Amino acid sequence: MIETSTPTMLDKTEPAHCTVCCCTLANKILMVLFMVLLIFAILFGNLVTLAVILGTKHFHTPQGYLKASLAVADLAVGIFVVPLSVYAEVYLMVTDSAPEWTSYNSQSVSFHPCNVIGPIFAGCTLVSITTIFLLTIERSIAVLKPLHKDSVITRKRTTILIVLSWVGSFFLAVSPMIFSSEIALEYNSCSRMCNYALGNIGEFPSPAWNILLLFPAFDFTLLGGTMVINIISLSSIRQHSKRRKHLAETESTVTKPTFSDIKAAKTIGTLTVAFTASFTPIAVFVVGNVLGNKWCNFSFFAFWILATNSCWNVIIYSVRDQKFRLRAHKLLMPFQRKDTTKT
After folding, report:
1. DSSP secondary structure string for all residues of 4-68
2. Which DSSP string do the residues of 103-114 spell out, in sequence order?
């Protein structure tokens, strides 16, 4: 989401801009193939997730609503963010020159594609983080206070929180351009994505830096809180398991979380670990930029590791949630039958 240097696609004079992914034709082809496969993986996985959640009454719960919101955010990455990168890279390979708009930042032209795509990527990343935080809160209440779960966690409250998370996340995504004239958007030749950048090359005003650093500060505050809550929930689950083994008779009279609640809490914990792992390289990159390091090659890997996170969720659900796996299998069975009849 954040890039503090401003190399452009048409700037071929600096060898540093020849990243490890794009220095040879073979590398360029592999990079585009990776992007195309990523689009299909994101679209397929999240469409299956939405079909399972929306088409199954069992998943019409606050937790299901939050997972649907997460799937929509991931879908947006596959529909808008990655295809623009594919277009720019294919155009560069076919014509041996980059699209004209990649040589300018958003302050230099009246309309720039990154004015739309950049905030979408940033906003959807922030939505994903806030949604995982809300999922963790929802599961912690189910595990720690099972008697209060139905009264505290309602569909109406969950819907309101989802709307607020989308509005707040996208407001934060566009806030750098609103509150600082120094912030621009550009298609960066290192990350091969639309990134935020400082409009004046070589000058780093402190107000602009403060605004840019809102992203890692916000993200790691929520991710840190999510990790702490997950640790508390999983510790409670472990204590409950020990009590159930040693005090089976007396424990039957005590209200305890259901097996499905425990299983869901572990699934959300796995989601948290996966997202934290995918976001950490971006945080390291931002800190490195603050210290004056460009890290062009690392920039590419950091941003695309984060993008691949958009197709992990369905894999985690399929591995951890048997009901989700069975429902997804039923949805895909008609397509499998068509394939067998053709053969």
Report:
1. -S---TT--S-GGGS-TTTSSHHHHHHHHHHHHHHHHHHHHHHHHHHHHHHH-GGG-SHHHHHHH
2. GS-TTTSS--TH
Tokens describing residue 129:
């983080």
Residues 55, 160: Cα–Cα separation, whole Å: 22
Q: How many CA atoms within 13 Å lie on the side-chain side of 281? A: 20
Torsion angles phi and psi, residue 184, rounded to 5: -130, 175
Fold observed for domain 25-323: Rhopdopsin 7-helix transmembrane proteins (1.20.1070)
3-state secondary structure of 193: strand
Task: Give CA–CA dist 300/304, Å, rounded.
Answer: 6
Q: For residue range 255-313, what is the model confidence (pLDDT) as tens digits?
A: 566 667 677 777 888 888 888 889 888 878 877 776 667 788 898 999 999 999 998 88
Give, in degrees to the nearest 5, the angle at Cα 92 between 90 and 96.
130
3-state secondary structure of 172: helix
pLDDT-based confidence at residue 13 (cuts at 50, 70, 90): very low
Residue 173, pLDDT > 50, answer yes
Distance, in Å, from the CA atom of 78 to the CA atom of 121, rounded to the nearest integer, reads 10
Q: Using CA atoms, how far apart are residues 264 and 238, in angstroms rounded to an integer?
A: 14
Can you tell me whether residue 183 is helix, strand or coil? strand
Q: How many CB atoms lie within 10 A of CB 116?
A: 14
Which distant-in-sequence residues (6+ apart) come within 8 Å of 131 by Cβ?
66, 69, 70, 73, 162, 165
For 19-46, what is each residue's pLDDT tens digit?
A: 666 778 888 899 999 999 999 999 999 9
What is the three-class DSSP state of 303?
helix
